[in-house]
Amino acid sequence: MKKTVLTAFVTLILLIAVIPGTAHGWNGIRKISPSETAINQYETFELDVSLDAPHENPYDPEQIDLSALITTPDKKTITLPAFFTGKRPAWKIRYTPAMTGKYSYSLRLKTPSDTYTSPVHHFEVKAGPGNGFLRKSRNNAFYLAFDSGRPFFGIGHNTGWVVNNNIAVYEKYFSDLRDHGCNLTRIWINNPWTLSIENRKIGDYNLSDCDKLDSVIRLAEEYGIYIILVLDSYGSLMEDTGAWNEGVWGKNPYNSVNGGPCEQPWDFFTNPEARTWYRNRLRYIVSRWSHSPGILAFELWNEVDTPRDWAAEMLGYLKSINPHGQLVTTSLSYPWGNNFDESTIWSLKDLDLIEQHIWGDQARDIIGYLIATNRAVMEKNNKPLFVGEFGMNTRLNDKLCDRSGHGTALHNSIWASALSGSFSGALNWWWAGYVRGKNLYPHYRALRNFVADVNWDSKRVAFPETTPIMRKVPESEEIICTDTTVQTKKTWGDTRYREFTINNNGDVSGGVINYYLQGLAQKGLKINPIFHLNYPESGKFIIHVDMVSQGACVIGFLDTARVMTAAFPTGPGSGPWKKSIHIRTHDIYQCYYNTTIEVAVPRGEHTLKLINTGKDWLGIKKITLTGYKNNAFVNARLTGLIIGDEILFWIQNKDYNWHRATRGMEPSQITGASFDVRNTENGRYEVEWWDTFNGDIILRESAHARDNMLRISIPAFSKDLACKIRKKDGSPGTLQISPATGLKQKARL
After folding, report:
1. CB under 8 Å to 73, separation ≥6 — which residues?
2. C-alpha span between 20 and 237 (Å, rounded)
3. CA angle at residue 329 from 325 to 332, to 5 degrees?
4. Whole-model pTM above 0.85?
5. Are the C-beta atoms of 30 and 9 separated by less than 8 Å?
6. What are phi and psi of 153, to 5 degrees?
């Protein structure tokens, strides 16, 4: 009997010993060491963990998966993966709590054969001074705010990388940014010349660079600089050398020649093994760095037209594993000239921020282009928007475009973006030899002074309706009508902009006019552009025809009447064209015409619609409107926003641009100019005029709204000015505005 009992007892002990997760069974967790047992809200709670569990690759959660199960004071349980440090103790968990109160946690360790969950431990979180993480505003669709409710407006430049990844150099940039009112930068990782994670072989991480990135993020926090962390760039998929030697597909660990699963670059997005390993990389990034409130957003790719299904999967996965909830974005462009519909990515529910990259060689009037595209994108997508890269030329450093360091394009870009809907000033790309080398930081300080007290977290965000800037023509001066010319842009596949208003000062609302007027061969790219016109006297709408591919036929409808038909055949040899080119790869002819199509337009408001019923595209080099602008219209533009109880405007002399500045051409002074803000409540308003270079208020004056129109008289200026307008008697006014959704609504001012 005693022998039988003893045998049964031993058998029970052995059974308990092999049951995964039991208190006396397998326990691969040797030691758990918390950094503190009580911390402040928004400070990081760390666990150092020692394991005793067999595995070959610590970066593969299929082999070893250590996670913290954290129960928050409101009884929600979150799962946060641990990361391998390569040092003793080898594993770490980082968590930054947003709530005060008592937390509990346990660790779960999984291997292919066992699972173990540790006993429950606790830590306390007290109220602290931090503002927390940046989120999309709860009050409007376009700006950001901290967990604390404090509004945020970003100002800064890119700091993509530094020479030799020297941490001290990063610190110098962060110091310069902070000292000039900046709070935002954009940093790349995972390229051969940047800090890298997975750069040697697939599933093997560079822990030395990861340690450096720890230091960079910690320094950014200390200096109050928020980071958009770019997780990879198009060069990783580029087989060619590239203009900047950025093509490094040959070194990519996902390339089959390096032991990866991908035969071709675009296999990265379709190969199941590649997708699994990339998800593992995202998991490591979240586990190691998402604890930092200093990371504003993770950007999946710099300038890659990612397939929609891949982007949807990775954005969703990134959000599902990140309890800290950083915003996510991606930027688009590569392969260059790709026929890509940006809205397929921008409309994804898990994409938080829309990012544009704008360069001076995209359009002659790059500031007009920036304002037009910002507003069009903002109206269509209802998401926060920013210009992640800005420069004068995609193939030339701005320090060479602007050798004297005028900073004109930089200056105009940050003010134009700030006052046309971006949640930050445009981030200049040339951080080293240009912004820092030419000491252009004072431009940022001036903008910071202007936006510092604006309530970007307001429920009221909209575009004000205004007239163009005009001047009163003296009776002794004859009214003279002159021509205005509108440029187009070669953007193959861009179908975003379809309807335009050409204002009498030459500005275009509604986006950018595409060079390509597509015919029947490209039905997916075909749009029929509509132009809203207002001729002060009868004139002509002149289309300058450049190149034609395979034949085109343009039909014009003025209002509802068909007023023009023009055929443009193509073929070999001589013809109505100036030159014929045989495109052998497609066996087609494209012919250079260098001619015009003219449409007579009577005085007044009209709508002109163009349709190409021909086989292929016709290139519109530019459009000229004769007699469209008279000398009452001032050569200046304005862009503005309604934010809360304020109207903000930036006013630019169009002659103050980088093309003229780099040739030493000073803009002439503009005097006696004014504009009207439509549909305002009658009464007195205070107008505050700002110097955009010094960041100072230069004038305060009153303006009166009569007949629901507020006339704003502009002080004499040569380059640009900014202003803030508030109802003076303290009572809210009403404005009939054009809101960011593109609809009409009443807003309180």
Report:
1. 99, 100, 101, 102, 103, 125
2. 44
3. 170
4. yes
5. no
6. -135, 125
